[in-house]
Amino acid sequence: MKQTTDQWHRNNAQRKNKLLQVCRKHNLNYSVHYSQRIHSGLFVNDKYRVLYCAIPKVASSNWKGVMAVLSGRLSSDDVFKSGQMVPNIAVHALDKGFGQHLTPLGRFSPRQREYRLKNYFKFMFVRHPLERVLSAYGSKMAVLKDTAKKTVQARREIIKYFTKNATFYQLQSGSGVTFPNFINYIIHSHLRKRMLDPHWREYNMLCQPCGIDYDVIGRYETLSEDAVQVLKLISAENVVRFPTSRRPNHGTNAKDKIKEFYSQISAENMLKLWQVYRLDAELFGYMYPDTNWNLYPNGTTN
User: Fold this and answer.
1) What is the DSSP annotation of 124-158?
2) Burial label, 15 (beta-carbon count in 10 A; 0-12, 13-18, 19+)
3) Chain-centre distance of CA 113, in angstroms?
């Protein structure tokens, strides 16, 4: 059921209050004034006085497209066609495609960064951590389309250290990464205190929500509704429309996919994986799956 505007604002306030409670509970209050690590993932638009923290695998490509349109140097039709992003556009590179029209917070001086962090409208989007990990596996590990150096290196490491009897071709190409071995890789990287790849890095590390007071915490489960409200709040609803053709599927098929892949993981490794993302889950109100692999046992996506 579609929410009224008042209901949406109440739900967003509940998300923010939940976040604040967990931050206080764990005594988390990061100073982001000198935190260079997150500045490259925070994108700024001075005209609309907005700051967006991009989290890969949570509609970040579409949101970067929106931010590119808001730059005023591209039209909505330049980026989106028939409700979808134009194929083969450079999404994440800041030196080509519409990435040239994105402005990372890190390009500003410390004083300018601090001003924008304190005074601009700020938003971020999250989804269930286990759902995001599975999405990252599907696009970065299960296929070889992504040829980014870090992705290829990760695939090769997984084959080298977690795949028994790997062939020479697998060791060179990184092909044949299984979901259980991908999970092993995440767990071991976390235990060794290695920074995780941004596509499966913790939200807390990417956006530091206990140090930045986000005005809106959107959720992938309510992406369309949340996106409409964000654009209204920055007075950009008549400038660009968020793509709606590829809406998240949280029905039977999505649940079956979760069960299909996570049932391959041992109970011990499931608990270890959950430890990696436990804080994220607590900060944003997500739960460990029930015995039927339901990620939303209470039937709520608020």
Assistant:
1) EEE--HHHHHHHHIIIIISSS----HHHHHHHHHH
2) buried
3) 22
Tracing tokens 């996570």 back to the chain, one arrives at 262
Going by C-beta distance under 8 Å and a sequence separation of 6 or more, which residues neighbour residue 247?
Answer: 223, 224
Burial class of residue 241 (count of CB atoms within 10 Å of its CB; 0-12, 13-18, 19+): middle
Cα 290 off chain centre by = 23
DSSP code string of 36-72: HHHHTTEEEETTTTEEEE--TTSSHHHHHHHHHHHTT
Chain CA centroid to CA 91, Å:
14
42 phi/psi in degrees, rounded to 5: -105, 125
Q: What is the pTM of this model?
A: 0.92
The strand ranges marked E within the chain are 42-45, 50-53, 80-81, 84-85, 121-126, 216-219
Contact at 8 Å (CB) between 255 and 170? Answer: no
Beta strand 42-45 with 50-53: parallel, antiparallel or unpaired? Answer: antiparallel
Distance, C-alpha 203 to centroid of its chain: 7
pLDDT of residue 299: 60
First-residue to last-residue Cα distance in the chain: 12
**What tokens appear for 291 in the block?**
């015995």
Closest by Cα among 102, 125, 123 to 218: 125
pLDDT along the chain (302 residues), means of 10: 89 97 89 61 96 96 93 85 62 62 91 95 98 96 88 95 93 94 98 95 94 96 96 96 65 83 97 98 95 77 62
User: What's at 206, amino acid-wise?
Assistant: L
CA distances to 1, 248, 249 from 300, rounded to whole Å, are 11, 15, 14
Q: Which of 105, 122, 145, 129 is nearest to 57 (CA)?
A: 129
63 contacts 55 by C-beta, under 8 angstroms = no
